[in-house]
Specification:
heterodimer; A: about 350 residues; mainly alpha; ABC transporter involved in vitamin B12 uptake, BtuC; 14 helices; about 75% helix; B: about 350 residues
Chain lengths: ~350, ~350
């Protein structure tokens, strides 16, 4: 029993997510000791609400990156669904809130479907296709809204209260974030679909020759990230209450991809976990808020994010190389003993 | 049918990758000339090129990086950091000439850093340059803060207004520089040893390695080149704008990459041409200027470029799909007839 427990503990210590977790603890300790106000509840809730939006979109992006694709258009998709939802709410003030959320998710899903078709049946590399739709969706926001922004008084009070209240104490925004992380965890580790997604990511030719439909799975993950970005649009509206057609969620894709990469998802596909992405989002949220709170110039934030990505990928690479070496050594030892 | 075409007296054949950009260019010119009769006047065309030359130079250098199968997302941030060094040195009283030299050198070093991280650590260039995109932009922000550096000497400002050949329409210095650069890049990529190595190492890295090409060196040179060109562009953009702020050149990387991909360079490496990049740059320029003439919002202009990017990649694929299908059907029918 003791041995088993011991091995379990070393297993947890060896997990990659544990390293990110430790780093988050260190950051918390540093920021907290420099500036005790960092731990005030209003600051913590500010961090969490910005992390929540990142988590919802990052959860979907994890699955996209696992399939060797990338979605650069998430920021524009989020903006598009927030804008359409805001306009529906402005025209019909009595629209039920669940309906509004569904509208946003539907618009996100349609954007994702377009991306998915371009990448799968159109055979366009995802980085080019989503680079194009990044600009197209942003242009569409402008055309749909006629360059009129959604003001706080147009947004229903129920939507705004999603960011602050809920039946069980934590705001709806965080509940949605946790639910989407749990959903991705469940899909990726508990279902056959998840196995297929990882199979396509780690060896596309092999997966196709085993009878998996590459196109269907690609479309599915893009629709999934689109729907989650739509949900992110609801949360964005809840948090900021204003939707400006020119700069809604501009540059969000950079933060999301950074968080996913820091969370240990391999940009070449095939590996990555929902928990890692969640921790990556928390890390970015704490870092950007903490730097401001302790009085470091906010200009260092971009530098810090860049360093963090580089460090995460470099450490990942070292670990992977060592694992490969150990694997080869183990095979050789087996042969020698035989 | 085929033999008739090859026997036709017209020997000149437009390469496939140029057809899309040329069509876009012509369409944009027609559309723009509907908006204003002055749109197609040589003077107005040449005057409009000034703002696109930096993107063009970045795209030329990126062509090499992308042919290698790499990507450099950090070019615009490298440009900003070089411009930041230039501004900071100038503000501290260094003569403007040495500021420019330092700026170009900074670009070279930053490009080299990208290359070294990618090659020595064996990391994917997409992630590394995504990180340095943030890192270099952050360095610029740390260097310049909220401030503006201006008051550059008269002799330095207004590079884009200077005419090499006077008259109407004259030849502005940036356009001349771009033409010279295109010719040099054309010779390097399509007529020199290095260009051949570049294309080979992009199309099959391991085979190239075994046939005695140092693929890593080729890639490193491409990264250093893209950094150096970004440094040169930093000097040009500072001279054109006459002031430096920390978000100079924000988002230029997307336009440059669009120009490269629109020009037929394969994003996975191994195929590409300088002529494609040059024509694609002019196509992008024509589209944007035509939409400006027709008074269409900037966000929609970007969307139009994005749509064209997708269409130029998509249409040839759809076409080849149907051609394949027809050929398969033909072969099937022939086999049936034989049986």
């Amino acid at each position: 029993m003791a041995v088993q427990l011991n091995s379990k503990i070393t297993y947890i210590f060896k997990k990659r997510e544990f390293g990110i977790f430790l780093f988050i603890l260190v950051l918390l300790a540093v920021f907290g000791s420099i500036e005790p106000r960092f731990f005030r509840s209003d600051n913590l809730s500010a961090i969490l609400s910005s992390v929540g939006i990142l988590m919802v979109v990052g959860a979907g992006q994890t699955l996209v990156i696992v399939t060797r694709n990338i979605d650069l258009s998430v920021g524009s998709t989020l903006g598009m669904s927030a804008m359409v939802m805001g306009m529906v709410a402005r025209e019909n003030p009595d629209f039920p809130i669940v309906g509004l959320i569904l509208v946003a998710m539907l618009v996100g899903g349609i954007c994702g479907l377009i991306n998915g078709y371009l990448v799968s049946y159109g055979m366009i590399p995802s980085i080019i296709a989503t680079l194009g739709t990044l600009a197209i969706f942003r242009g569409a926001i402008f055309l749909v809204s006629d360059n009129v922004q959604i003001d706080p008084e147009d947004v229903p009070k129920d939507i705004i209260s999603l960011a602050t209240t809920s039946p069980i104490g934590i705001p709806w925004l965080l509940i949605f974030a946790f639910l989407s992380i749990i959903l991705v965890w469940y899909i990726s580790s508990q279902t056959l679909l998840g196995k297929r997604i990882y199979a396509v990511g780690s060896n596309p030719e092999g997966a196709v020759s085993r009878g998996l439909s590459f196109n269907k799975i690609t479309i599915l993950v893009f629709v999934f990230v689109g729907v989650l970005a739509g949900l992110g649009g609801v949360l964005y509206t809840a948090r900021y209450a204003t939707i400006n057609p020119a700069d809604v969620a501009r540059g969000l894709e950079f933060d999301v991809i950074s968080a996913v990469v820091i969370g240990g998802t391999n940009i070449f596909g095939g590996s990555g976990t929902a928990l890692g992405t969640a921790l990556g989002c928390v890390l970015i949220g704490i870092l950007s808020n903490g730097l401001t709170v302790v009085g470091v110039s906010p200009f260092w934030k971009a530098c810090a994010t860049g360093f963090l990505i580089l460090a995460a990928v470099a450490i990942d690479n070292l670990v992977r190389k060592r694992q490969e070496q150990n694997f080869l050594l183990a095979i050789r030892n087996q042969r020698v003993t035989k | 049918m085929m033999s008739k075409l090859t026997n036709s007296p017209i020997r000149f054949k437009v390469p496939g990758y140029l057809i899309g950009p040329i069509l876009i260019l012509v369409a944009a010119m027609i559309y723009g000339s509907l908006g204003s009769e002055y749109f197609l006047q040589p003077a107005s065309i040449i005057f409009n090129t000034g703002r696109y030359i930096e993107i063009g130079l970045l795209a030329l250098a990126l062509t090499f990086v992308i042919i290698n199968g790499d990507i450099d997302l950090s070019v615009a941030s490298t440009l900003a950091a070089s411009a930041g060094v230039l501004a900071k040195l100038f503000a501290n009283g260094v003569p403007i000439f040495w500021c420019c030299v330092a700026s170009i050198f900074t670009g070279f070093v930053l490009g080299l850093i990208n290359g070294i991280i990618v090659i020595k650590f064996g990391l994917p260039s997409l992630v590394v340059t995504l990180a340095t995109l943030a890192l270099y932009r952050g360095l610029t922000q740390v260097m310049l803060g909220d401030g503006v550096v201006a008051n550059y000497p008269e002799s330095f400002v207004g590079f884009d207004q200077r005419l090499l050949i006077g008259g109407n329409p004259g030849l502005p210095a940036p356009l001349a520089l771009f033409i010279v650069a295109s010719i040099i890049f054309y010779y390097v990529l399509h007529r020199s040893n290095y260009g051949l190595k570049n294309i080979m190492s992009g199309s099959n890295p391991s085979t190239s390695n075994f046939s005695g090409i140092s693929v890593n060196n080729v890639r490193l040179v491409a990264f250093a080149l893209s950094g150096t060109v970004a440094g040169i562009c930093a000097v040009m953009i500072t001279s054109r704008l006459g002031s430096t702020i920390s978000n100079v050149g924000l988002g230029l990387e997307l336009l440059a990459i669009t120009a490269v991909v629109l020009g037929g360079t394969d994003i996975f490496g191994g195929r590409g041409a300088v002529s494609g990049t040059v024509v694609a740059l002019f196509a992008i320029m024509a589209v944007r200027e035509a939409l400006v003439i027709q008074d269409i919002n900037g966000q929609v202009q970007d969307a139009a470029i994005g749509l064209l990017l997708i269409l130029t990649v998509l249409v040839p694929r759809i076409r080849s799909y149907y051609v394949d299908k027809r050929n398969r059907k033909k072969r099937f029918n022939e086999a049936q007839a034989k049986a």
